[in-house]
Amino acid sequence: MALSHAIAEHLPYLRRYARALCGTQKSGDAYVRACLEAIVADTSVLDPTSSPRVGLYRLFHTLWATTDLESRALAHAGHDTGASVERRLGQLTPAHRQALLLTAMEGFNVSDTARILGVPEDQVKGMVGQAVREISDQPSTKVLIIEDEPIISLDLQSIVREMGHTVAAIATTRDEAVRAARKTEPGLVLADIKLADGSSGIDAVRQILSEVQVPIVFITAYPERLLTGERPEPTFLVTKPFVPETVRVAVSQALLFT
Prior knowledge:
Largest sheet: 5 strands, parallel
CATH architecture of the largest domain: 3-Layer(aba) Sandwich
Oligomer: single chain
CATH topology of the largest domain: Rossmann fold
Helix content: 55-70%
Strand content: 5-15%
Structural class: alpha/beta
CATH superfamily of the largest domain: Response regulator
Number of helices: 12
């Protein structure tokens, strides 16, 4: 019982990481479910020398590196899996990106990141540095910011511009956001959940996505509410209060899958 409680506490954040790593909620959540199934079948799959959180992420990486759940699903459906495997291999988040996500988004220290990835500690800093350089080399795009708190909006604008992107528009309500998206055709959207007039950033994004496909990064003070795995939920999620590096990583990772 103690182990199940310890694991449950970290599951929402493992889903966040898995979705960002895989690029979709469906794939990320499938690997998290696979982790849980493996633990139920044999609790010894969790490293007893690690904390439950580190052990859980380490198990996830073991499964993610050795199992292609998407291709397996297609095989059961009777489809040719060749193209699926090739597509997945082309979309794998490289090891240096994994290190950056673990440190910047999930807050692991160098030692725990090394244990999760199965690499020497002195290699982790180099991996993170490589990923940071890669972010700076990404092509620029236009970013629509949906945020009603002025200070946070200014912070996001600053981060976006420092990354070399342009701010397409600032919207504080659902209707403003939809109009701005139609007018500016952004390459990425940063969206808060609760907006100025009581409207929903989620509703704004749903309307935008019904008209154009664009990567979305949600920003919320209550991430666990959107990381249940029980319904359609965001792929990329930043927790308030945030540090700039977390936003940069989320934006960069979202653009990686466009």
